[in-house]
Amino acid sequence: MTKIDNIRNYTNNLKFYGQDCMQTEVYASQYAKQHNMIYISPYNGPQVIGGQGTIGLEIMHQLNTVDAVFVPIGGGGLISGIAGYIKSVNKSIKIIGCLPKNSPVMAESIKRGQIIEMETLPTLSDATAGGIEKDAITFAICRQLVDEYVLVTEEEIKSAIISTLKTQHLLIEGASGVALAAIVKCSNKYSGKNVVIILSGANISLQTLKSILVS
Question: Does residue 72 sit in helix, strand or coil?
Answer without folding.
Answer: strand
